Amino acid sequence: MQTSKSMDNPKKDKSPLLWGLTFGIVFGFLLQKGGATKYDVIVGQLLLTDFTVVKIMLSAVLTGMFGIYAMKTLGWVELYPKSGSAGMNIIGGLIFGVGFAILGYCPGTLAGAIGNGYLDALVGGLAGILIGSGLFAALYPLLNRGILKKGDFGDLTLPRLFKVNDWVVVIPVAVLIFLLLYWLERAGL
Amino acid sequence: MIERLFRGEKVELKPYYQKVKLVVDWQWMLVVGIVIGSLISALLSGDFHWQWVPSIWATAFGSDLLLRVIVALVGGVCIGFGARWAGGCTSGHGISGALQLAVSSWISAICFFIGGILTAHIIFKLIG
Q1: Which of A36, A135, A144, B126 has the highest CB neighbour count under 10 A?
Q2: Contact B24/A at CB under 8 A
Q3: What's the pTM?
């Protein structure tokens, strides 16, 4: 979010390191407070019995989206949407999802879980992620010639996809997220 | 997030290599920060404890330490591999990308949950 924005334009040599550390501490603190460093909470989300993870993500997207698009409208920031393709995001996303359920942590919350004292995250999870990343790096030249290029759509955003003003998408998405959060709270999930 | 750290080693990403290598530094610090921040919060709220086997896992599959670590390792491989394949994780796509309304991030985040929900149900409803 704002973190990645300020990091991408480092003004001084050392400041990105300090900012990274600072934002990391804040992020880790909030993840732990929210309960997202726990295997039981993440697996509970995927079993649809505990909606903590979705609530954290949706509220972060809701506030962050307003913030970043307000700053974009004011001309203070540029967006850096990730480029993608159907081959990348659908297949990669599904593989990630399978790992998400088996591991019970995602990469960010794994670091938080380690801080919380969870040793399955440190010994099993971290080692696995390193191996998985290395494996991908090894297969990358092969994958990049085929599957990763399938259905390439670049760094498209929803407003550009629908060819409308940013706020024509921001407002309805915000309303939908708000209603979903409200419904989750009402339903006691 | 963590997986991005290692992209610096991926020489195959030639055009991005210089830029990404620079970025590795603050992202390392970000991950270190997450560990510290979580530790501080856990200590302050008295929630810090060493734990090998989480309780939902223990209820379904017992408290065997080795089994849980091996499964976590396998899950880690999938998540590391998948995050690199998709170009981001639950934070990078699910939060930072989704809030910028990136198409790649919304597709990825939806697929994270489709894959995760199906797999979790297979593990705990069919196997466990």
Answers
A1: A36
A2: no
A3: 0.89
